[in-house]
Amino acid sequence: MKRKAPSLQKSLPRYYFLVIFVTFTAMLTAFYIYYTKNLRASEYLNLQNVCDSACSNMEQEIEKMSTVSLNTIYSKDILPGIRGIHVDQLGTQQTYTQVQAIYNSISAMIGPQQTVAQINLYHKNGFSVGTGFYTYNKKINLEEKSWYSDVLAENGYKIMSTPQPISHFIPTAAIPYEPYYISLTRLYFDDVHQMEGAVEVLQKCDTFFSFIDRLTAANPSLSLLIMDRNGELIYPVDERGEEMAHLTAVLAEKQDIPAGRTVHVRDENGSKNALHRQTVKTVGWQIYVFEPDSVITRSLAAPTFLFLAVLVAGLLLTMAVCFSISRRILQPVGELTETFETLVLDDVFSHTIDTVSLPQSHYEEIQTLITSFRDMYNKMNASTMEMLKSQENEIRAKEIATQSMMKPHFLYNNLANISVMAEENMNQEIITLTENLCDYLRYTSTGSEIRVPVSDEFLYTQKYLACMNVRYRGRLTCDFTLDERMGEIQIPKLSLQPIIENSLKYAFMKKPPWHITVRGYLDAAAGKWLIRITDNGVGFTGEELRKLTHTLESIRDSKDITRLKIGGMGLQNVYLRLLLQYGPSAILTVENDPEGGACITMGGSIANVRNS
């Protein structure tokens, strides 16, 4: 049973609803993508700024401690004073005075601003002295220090420790709580550059990382972690740092995280994170700053819900308006439908279409529809006439091609040549000429094939030239080269011979010998087949080239079949037939050969080859 068509009153609201729904959905999607992109860019910039600020601050803090250690080494009072102390005399009055002088010098080095928390000095003779938050002097074994082998390997360059409780640095210090400190240690040398001892500068972690603490507090959604070159945790010092170190280790195993660029990684739970890394070059520390991607998506929730609410309200309002409009439009549309039903198809081809009585309406859209209906009938009439004209032109083109294939003057010339050759008893030459002439005439007179393989066109063009060469008595030489891969490509029949004929007619206005080269090849990169015809004639003048180029361009733009003229298949005819077969990919260029003479290139797209 045939399904009943839906009414306009029901269909119109559906169509409006679909259009509004698609439009609003596209707007929501575009808004979401744009907002997300900008938000991510802002967050990534914030990640980079936080990481860069942390890296810069760490370099400053390390440089501050390094400067203090160097000033201690180059002090005129501290190291000379240590060299004058004998370990065996510790506790004596003389040693006490010397140690007090060293204390004073170290305290002056620390300064009233408390640049660092503690300075410890170690001599290879076993003497150690330090002051700051804790003052001591004692005998030690320098090689038993945990940092000794590392600092010795650096040959005097500074090394940084991981945060450790004060008991790690000064076991004898009696402090009721265990604050964390970080140290910078380097060797110092005597006058002959022999290792003499080490200087250790301590700084309290609360002071050293104070800027980092403020930075992370100001960005609660970000997590910041610092690790040394050995992968040991530097910051944060609390237990949360161990969890972050584990997370970063997992992230680092998944991909090589580049420095100075924000990347996306997923943790072991599959959560997406934005991660940025920088390197503190002076000590090789790695600073990681990352933010969960969920922080960004959560910020999109409020505007997305708001937009969805607007979308729903807009759709409901649209539905109500559409129902109202459809009821008002239904009556004039019904009248218009009745008028359409009275019309028949034969009216399309009559001249009475303007006299058909069409309904009137005060709606501009209905009036436009009526006018469009009348214009449609007129255009259908014009299109039908144009289609008939095109068919007529196609038949005419085939007739022109068939008529142009036969060249009476070509036959007359060859018959005259045969007559002369018969008088001179050139029997073998007559046989060869007759065979070539018969083959060529059979090829040109066969009208069933509009398109032929390139190999056939090459073969019969050579036979044509063989016939013509009898007339020129060896003054004309020809060189044909064809890529065997393009032998079966279809081209318009007799598209090569007219170009050769033009060369014989116009190009050789100079003394022989004359030479024509025909080369067929494939341009795989461009996807084109090409046939290049060159001669050693006089070539084209600038004015001729300009006119020919303009004519070919006008043919490409118009594809005017009326340009096919009876009595010739010249460049215009060849190009037009190439356009009819290959469309926009057809090629026909005219130029002068750099070595002299004319050069014509014809071709088309391999992919757009149309079978006849």
Automatic annotation (TrEMBL):
Keywords, alphabetical: ATP-binding, Cell membrane, Kinase, Membrane, Nucleotide-binding, Phosphoprotein, Transferase, Transmembrane, Transmembrane helix, Two-component regulatory system
What's the protein's topology in the membrane?
Answer: Multi-pass membrane protein
Coiled-coil annotation reads none
**Molecular function terms, GO-annotated:** kinase activity
In this chain the Signal transduction histidine kinase internal region domain maps to 401-476
Keyword Electron transport recorded = no
Instruction: List, for all copies, the residue spans of the domain called Histidine kinase/HSP90-like ATPase.
Output: 496-602
Where are its TM segments located?
A: 12-35, 300-323
Q: What is this protein called?
A: Histidine kinase
Q: Which organism is it from?
A: Hungatella hominis
The top of its lineage is: Bacteria, Bacillati, Bacillota, Clostridia, Lachnospirales
